[in-house]
Design a protein that fits this description.
Length: 240
């Protein structure tokens, strides 16, 4: 089966290659993503995130899900020395950089729990796969209609942060200015929670982000810096 829906501001496509009827499982996964958009979007005034940002909720009143997300945000803030920060002056609370990967990973886990063994869930170019091998293209950082790399993954996730994606919206929390030094960061990890958050965090760090991401346990990386130099880790699963 194959389905595409527009959720959280980007297209989400799901392909399940298992035998059997997985329509209900797909319904559950997409319903979860819509729920996340309603609860976590900083652009919805009635969302839990917006209410927390306005001081209408205390941290003790937060849902377990938001508590988990904020803990992840703090983990990455500390790990990057403040380069990754979801609380920037003048911008309010915006945990989207963690929420996307975290929520899509949870959707993939819902599919697995429903019995799906071979699937590909693609959320705006960030991908979770199971039961591969699956081939996943990495977009060229300066030519959006071209690929610079094709990966082959059996089980795991891939995420890319680059100027073509969010551009100057990725801010180095240490300076309050748009991140510089890198054109794109692609991270392969066991979960999309880690891949997506680590890719964004590394991009925010600038040139030091490449080595930081490469040192993350379980992560393989492909980085193009502002001088067009490429760093890729030895274990990167490049397709033959």
């Amino acid at each position: 089966m194959h389905r595409v829906e527009h959720v959280m501001g980007f297209p989400v496509s799901l392909r399940i290659d298992d035998e059997g009827d997985f329509e209900e499982a797909a319904d559950t996964a997409f319903a979860w993503l819509r729920e996340v958009d309603e609860r976590f979007s900083p652009f919805r005034p009635d969302s839990e995130v917006s209410r927390l940002d306005r001081g209408e909720l205390s941290e003790s009143e937060l849902s377990p899900d938001l508590t988990e997300v904020l803990a992840l945000c703090e983990e990455y803030r500390l790990a990057t020395g403040g380069a990754f920060d979801v609380r920037l002056p003048g911008r309010g609370l915006d945990p989207c950089a963690v929420v996307k990967g975290w929520s899509v990973q949870r959707a993939a886990e819902l599919l697995s729990a429903a019995g799906a063994k071979r699937f590909c869930l693609n959320a705006g170019g960030d991908v979770v796969v199971a039961g591969g091998p699956w081939r996943v293209g990495v977009r060229h950082p300066e030519q959006a209609d071209q690929l610079c790399l094709v990966l082959e993954i059996t089980d795991g996730a891939v995420a890319t942060s680059g100027r073509y994606e969010r551009g100057d919206h990725i801010v180095d929390g240490r300076t309050g200015r748009p991140a510089t030094g890198l054109l794109s960061v692609t991270v392969v990890a066991p979960t999309l929670t880690e891949a997506d958050s680590a890719a964004t965090a590394a991009f925010a760090m600038g040139t030091e982000g490449a080595a930081w991401a490469a040192a993350r346990p379980g992560c393989e990386v492909f980085v193009v810096d502002a001088e067009r130099a490429v760093l890729r880790t030895a274990g990167l699963p490049v397709a033959a």
